[in-house]
Each structure stands twice: as structure tokens, then as C-alpha cells.
Amino acid sequence: MTYAGDVSPREAWEMLETAEDAILVDVRTLPEWQFVGLPDLAGLGRQTSLVSWQVWPGMEINANFVDEVAASSRGGPLLFICRSGVRSAHAASAATAGGLGPCYNVSEGFEGDRDGKGHRGRAGGWKVAGLPWKQE
Hints:
The protein is an alpha/beta fold and 136 residues long. The protein is 26% helix and 18% strand.
């Protein structure tokens, strides 16, 4: 089953601003959340839902993923984000197949694609779009 579509980080932010029941689900791993940073939704009076698509360190698919997302869902749009938009696309598909949604993939992810020097966080993504984020 196909998810509802891809949105840019800016479009995701706009959906979160206008749809009170929309949820941003960060599907990265605990080390990524801790060391790379997280989308900061405090200005919207919300928190990012943290549900790993793959479990660190073995990176196997989280067998409880759909149930964990369902537990935080409020029946509105679900926006899935990862590092670059690949894992979150799989997560959006799985959530859609599990009866949740509408589900959207944040296509550029949190860090975006690699730049010419192989570095992330400089060519697209939530951070480059200038959207709020925090690092622990």
C-alpha cells in the first residue's frame, strides 16, 4: 500500500502548524537522536514522536513499529522523518499498510543528502531549511 506522498521539510512544518492532530514521527535510532539532534516542535506546543524504524545496533526492522506509532497517533496526518528520507519512506508505507494515516514522508529528512564533500547537513533537509531543532 502506498503512503499519501512526499513533502519537503518546510511543507511538513506547515502541516504541523495548521493541523493540530498532525504528528511528526522521527524514525531514526537513539544514537542519531542523541548525537545529531531532533526536530524541535516546542514552539508548536508539541514534541516529536520518537519511534525507531530499525533497532540499534543490529538495525533490524522494529517488529512493533506500527503499534508504537499507533499509540501516539491522534487520527490526523503522520509525517515520518529520518536522516535523508529513505527509512521514513519505508516507515510511511508500513504505517499505511497497518491502517494508519494519512502518512507522509519528509523527503529530504533531517540532514538531507551528502554534499560534494560527502557531508550531510548542508544540502537539504530539516536543518538546512532553518526549521527548529535541538541537540542534547
